Amino acid sequence: MSKVSSDEAVKAELELVKKDVPHIEDVQLIAAVPALVRAEIKKTEHKQIAVTCMFPPTYPEIPVVIELKSKTLADKFLYGLTKICDTEAKKLIGKPQIVHIIKFVKTFVEENPLCVCSGEISAVKKLLTSEQDEIKLKQKTSQIILKLHQEQYFMHLVFTVPDDYPIVQTGVQIEECNFPHFLCVSFQAQATEIARQCVVPPLKKNPKDPPFVLKPSVQPVCEFLINCVKKYPLEKCPLCGDKVLPVDPKDENASKGKLKPVKVYCGHLFHFACLNKHMKTPPFTGGKKCPACDKQIFHEKWKVASEVMETRWAHKQAKQRELEEVVDFLE
After folding, report:
1. Which among 178, 188, 201, 20 is positioned nearest to 99, based on CA atoms?
2. Are 214 and 198 in contact (CB under 8 A)?
3. H or E stretch including 36?
4. 315-325: buried (b, 16+ CB within 10 Å) or exposed (e) per residue?
5. Parallel, antiparallel or unpaired: strands 153-160 and 143-150
6. CA-CA distance, 85 to 46, in Å (whole number)?
7. Phi, psi of 109 (to 5 degrees)
8. pLDDT value of residue 205
9. Is the omega angle on the peptide bond into residue 56 within 30 degrees of 0, that is, cis?
10. How high is the pLDDT of residue 256?
11. In what order do the strands lie in the sheet with 134-138?
12. H or E segment at 77?
């Protein structure tokens, strides 16, 4: 194509761009000059892309040069979408390309709502360590399916990413889990709270804390739950050194009575019998500490003050000595 005919093609396409692009919903035409066309697509505050199309010398016999930029979407996502757009433009060689490309990018963002957390998804994938671990994306429902495994334990999760994410927290639901029920309940509650803290400032702010900054919630919640699944099946009782959870999750007898798992405030697991003995024997001053992290132990089953616990222990020891004296006398 000659220089004249190429210039004419560019001029004709610029007229088409000025006519059609301003009428595309959620798209604003920023520039339409012989060197380039720039348009901004804005679906939400965090789903924004600037599309720049530059005319090569022999356009439209070769495709436009496409550049995508965004202050909110991940570079890796933009790079992948740019390659897709390049392929799309090659299909239109010899024809007007720019209006089609702008519409294509807009539709792609609409049909892939999880693009808003693509960077977080990439980071989460790197944390999956087992061949059985799996992550699936359901773009139509804006959901992330995460399946986690450690030895014979598993947890299947569904994350629902709202349209105005990350301003609104992700929804997270444990669909299946073969951990003890009390742990599943704890995991669900803590995951929901982590997501909430990402978007809601604390009610009582510490004056020394930096200003609250809203942040995406998918990755922090995933990191927490992945850590739980990978950690607890291997967790050993800080007092006896044996694994707290049974090797086989279906073995109910292995998690009853003295071997019943107990989770304390600091997050560590104990056997019930081990913790019960630890809580009821000296020293009591300053409260009982977790041997694993040295933090004070809090649990609803052992809420008695250390002074009362010490008195009870002393009374029990006195009774034991009395019984021993009686036995000695009878012998």
Report:
1. 20
2. yes
3. strand 36-44
4. eeeeeeeeeee
5. antiparallel
6. 21
7. -65, -40
8. 79
9. no
10. 77
11. 134-138, 143-150, 153-160, 171-177
12. helix 75-90
Distance in angstroms (rounded) separating the CA atoms of residues 70 and 48: 6
Alpha helices, H only, 179-288: 181-199, 218-231, 272-279
Pairwise CA distance, residues 324 & 328, whole Å: 6
State the pLDDT at residue 233: 97
User: Which among 59, 64, 63 is positioned nearest to 6, based on CA atoms?
Assistant: 59
The total of other beta-carbon atoms located within 10 Å of residue 63's CB is 20
Predicted local distance difference test score (pLDDT) of residue 2: 47
**Which residues are CB-contacts of 240 (< 8 A; sequence separation ≥ 6)?**
271, 274
Residue 31: its pLDDT value, please?
97
Assign 3-state DSSP to the chain and report helix, strand, coil percentages, each to 5: 45, 20, 35
What tokens does 200 get? 């809601």
Question: What is the full DSSP assignment across 127-177?
Answer: T--STT-EEEEETTTTEEEEEEEETTEEEEEEEE--TTTTTSPPEEEEEEE
- Low-confidence stretches of the chain (pLDDT beneath 70): 1-5, 303-331
Cα gap 221→96, rounded to integer Å: 45
The Cα–Cα gap between 30 and 51 comes to 10
d(CA 315, CA 249): 40
Residue closest to 204 by CA, chosen among 195, 193, 212 = 212
* Residue 46 CA to its chain's centroid (Å): 17
Compute the distance between CA of residue 239 and CA of residue 271 in angstroms, rounded to an integer: 8
Check residue 114 and give its pLDDT.
Answer: 98
